[in-house]
Automatic annotation (TrEMBL):
The keyword Zinc does not apply. CDD domains: OAT_like (cd00610). It comes from Rugamonas rubra. This is Diaminobutyrate--2-oxoglutarate transaminase. Pathway: Amine and polyamine biosynthesis; ectoine biosynthesis; L-ectoine from L-aspartate 4-semialdehyde: step 1/3. Belongs to the class-III pyridoxal-phosphate-dependent aminotransferase family.
Length: 439
């Protein structure tokens, strides 16, 4: 018996004993092709020597130094690198131990910004029904995933919710994309007005929806419209790029492709590529200036914030990403994987949609294509696909029945950027076998 509280209390997962490149090995001699990068975490692949060396060097220099007493070169250099390449004046960086913590920091910095501006009445966040922002209480409250919130409702702040940008399901027949997008923006504006613009702190969204829907990109102009509404009503736009950021969609920041700069950007996953637990919050200069000129401190902090080994690992990951031009490679490999998926599943009777950006791609499964009806949640199809894929040495990230309980099953593919073309073929072949066995 295991003393660990596993995600599924009735199941004990395989024991990972090795990992290199795009593969993870278990203690039974089985090898798994990591087609999901864990949960869209691994960008460089596993066991990269440059990252291991950087971590080793930092551990020898100073494994830990509390950020209340010291800063470190690793944390300073990582922040400088992120700030130098961030769009607009997103040039302040707060380092955390993961994505949820980055979102919590965003909620608190945004709230404190308005308090310091003398607007303490502001307390409302707006988010979308189809979204995941993390599992800590603030981030969980923000997320639209009703199933994940269910047990914890009394502990969660109220969040106003609007429709996701989910054209494949929600754009009406005969409606143009522009009209569909305009409708979403009108709903967001109505929500801001109903809440009272002077009571709203900000709107939070994932530029490409990840874990609640499988790589759903926005429609053209959607985020430009969001930015314009946030400016018009003087509320903040918080972009959750924890999953879709740091090159995963083929550009360093996903929102670059929408021509938009958010006020706060949460990062995680690909920032450290899985080598260490690390996330970050990027903040626009005027927000931090308001705190600096006001109370002089961000009323927040964690024991492991700006952890030097985590910062050294992320710095090394980010340097290799740039040296080896891996963001451009993510765009190229993403296009190749997309073409292979279209070829293999474009006419599959139970694959309703294939979508995404860069190496963040998703398949939405349907009982029948014409009406887009999902499989019954009780079938747990996504869990069966995961089991069948693992039995074939393939890791994919499955989701099911998670948005208001009714949206069906999805598969997310997010392999490391170093994946080869031959390995992409392997992924699609094994996925096809897993689907056939599970359906
Ligand atoms: N935001 C998004 C978009 C995510 O996908 C996730 C994790 O899946 C999080 C936030 C939370 O990050 P973490 O699990 O590192 O706390």
């Amino acid at each position: 018996m295991s003393h660990l509280i596993h995600r599924h209390l009735g199941q004990r997962p395989p024991v990972a004993v090795g990992a290199s490149g795009v593969y993870i090995d278990d203690n039974q001699g089985r090898r798994y092709l990591d087609a999901s990068g864990g949960a869209a975490v691994s960008s460089l692949g596993h066991g990269h020597p440059d990252v291991l060396a950087a971590m080793h060097a930092q551990i020898e220099r100073a494994a830990y130094a509390h950020s209340g007493f010291f800063t470190t070169e690793a944390a300073e250099q990582l922040a400088a690198l992120l700030a130098a390449e961030a769009p607009g004046d997103l040039d302040h960086v707060y380092l955390t131990s993961g994505g949820s913590e980055a979102i919590e920091a965003a909620l608190k910095l945004a709230r404190q910004y308005y308090v310091e501006r003398g607007e303490a009445q502001r307390g409302i966040f707006i988010a979308r029904r189809q979204s995941y922002h993390g599992n800590t209480l603030g981030a969980l409250a923000l997320g639209g995933n009703a199933q994940r919130r269910r047990h914890f409702a009394p502990l969660l702040i109220d969040v106003a919710r609007v429709a996701p940008c989910y054209a494949w399901r929600e754009q009406a027949p005969g409606q143009s994309e522009a009209d569909y997008t305009a409708g979403l923006l009108a709903e967001l504006e109505a929500c801001i007005i109903a809440a009272g613009p002077r009571r709203v702190i900000g709107f939070c969204a994932e530029p490409v929806v990840g874990a609640t829907g499988g790589a759903i990109p926005p429609t053209a102009g959607y985020f430009k419209g969001v930015r314009a509404l946030c400016d018009k009503h003087d509320i903040l736009f918080i972009a959750d790029e924890v999953m879709c950021g740091m090159g995963r969609t083929g550009t360093l920041h996903a929102l670059e492709q929408d021509g938009v700069v958010a006020d706060l950007v949460a990062l995680g996953k690909g920032l450290g590529g899985g080598y260490q637990p690390i996330g970050a919050l990027l903040a626009r200069a005027p927000l931090v200036a308001t705190l600096r000129e006001g109370s002089g401190a961000f009323q927040h902090g964690h024991t492991y914030g700006s952890h030097p080994v985590a910062a050294a690992a992320a710095l090394a990951v980010q340097r290799v990403l740039r040296r080896d031009a891996l963001v451009a490679q993510a765009a190229r490999r993403g296009a190749q994987l997309r073409a292979l998926l279209d070829e293999a599943f474009g006419a599959h009777p139970h694959v309703g949609d294939i979508r995404g950006r860069g190496l963040l791609l998703g398949l939405e499964l349907v009982r029948e294509r014409a009406g887009k009806a999902p499989f019954a949640p009780a079938l747990q199809l996504h869990a069966r696909i995961k089991r069948q894929a693992m039995a074939r040495g393939l890791m994919v990230y499955p989701m099911g029945g998670t948005v208001d309980g009714e949206r069906g099953d999805h598969i997310l593919l997010a392999p490391p950027f170093i994946v080869s073309q031959a390995e992409l073929g392997e992924i699609v072949g094994r996925l096809g076998e897993a689907l056939d066995a599970a359906l």
